[in-house]
Amino acid sequence: MNNLIKIGQVIPSTRAEGPGNRFAIWVQGCPILCKGCCNPEMLSDANGEFVSIDSIIEMIKITGDIEGISILGGEPFAQIEACLQICEQIKETELSIMVFSGYTLGALKKRNNPEADRFLDCIDLLVDGPYIAGQPEQQRRWIGSSNQQMHFLSDRYSPMEPQFNSANSVEIRFNDGELLVNGWPQGVKALLSKYK
Ligand code: SF4
Fold this sequence. Notes:
CATH architecture: Alpha-Beta Barrel
Number of domains: 1
Order of helices and strands: EEEHEHEHHEEEEH
CATH superfamily: Aldolase class I
Bound molecules: iron/sulfur cluster
Largest sheet: 7 strands, mixed
Mean pLDDT: 91
Strand order of the largest sheet: 3-1-2-4-5-6-7
Shape: globular
Structural class: alpha/beta
Distance between the termini: 46 Å
Helix content: 10-25%
Strand content: 25-35%
Number of strands: 9
CATH topology: TIM Barrel
Number of helices: 5
CATH class: Alpha Beta
Low-confidence stretches: none
């Protein structure tokens, strides 16, 4: 069994990629190629680096004060086996699992792929669908374009919680002298355009 995952970035603690503080993993590579993708550097399989599943799990376990993990990208379902290995281990902890996929939930279910189904079974929150630049989402938190949906695949969260009905947000952090911005694509673009 392949025990490596190709990642573009990891942020051990962010509040911009799902409920509460989250360990966020950006997988590298995406075949969907949405026009206006906010992470173009994570589309090519040629970029990024392979890391072991064990090291990712270890990083998650030693990161304190997190509510869960978020897997985004890149396309998580393009690395099903690796994401499944991570999520099945995380599922044994108290941490929640949120995944952002450019594929719709319906398309993923239609695959009739046992690994994709097991991956879906691990997920508490799924944001699905491609990013459509002409349909920017103005309100719903953690969602980039209005065609995308938040699916509550377990009873860990409820759509009635205020956090799912508040405005989108952008997170700005300084790390080793570098300015890092992540979160809502339209907000990030608007913010960065002020400094060009
Ligand atoms: S699915 Fe996501 S990562 Fe892939 S191209 Fe679309 S926006 Fe970018």
